[in-house]
Amino acid sequence: MAKKQAVSNRSEAYEKLLADYGKAVEAVRKGDFAGAQKQLEALRSQTGEEDELADRIRTYLTICEQRQAPAQPEPQNGEERYLRAVVLANDGQLEQSLHLLNQCLNESPGSASLLYARASVWALQGNGQAAVADLQQAIAIEPTLRFQATNDPDFEKVRDDASFIDIIEPTPTGA
Hints:
Elements: H1 2-29, H2 33-44, H3 51-68, H4 78-90, H5 94-107, H6 112-125, H7 128-141, H8 145-151, H9 162-168
């Protein structure tokens, strides 16, 4: 009889846990991230051996924390825009990176490092033609960038393009 009682109690406790979890998820859906976070943190210690539910609670806690994080301030100058563009590119946010690099290049159109950075983002997108055009300009300004591009993994998607090869390994009639 004691075993039946334990299963019954576990089921009641589990059902309450699920109901409370449902309320927390609903708060997330409504955009009440602070309230949901409080509810989820209270539930976290109650999951016991329910690993799947514990994982879901951790996931929603992460979402709440991310949604409440302060927004990044807008870059105030060209250097900040360039640094943010690099971070965005590394995070795979290539369109946003290109947008910032274009702003930088409007301010400093002859910058080899900006042209190189934009070429690498074009290459990450698989846009060989744009990557080669910017890389060619960058190398014309700063010839040592040819060697950097040779080993830069950002150019993997365009490495086999004939125009990229011509820039990296110029022939007497090439770049």
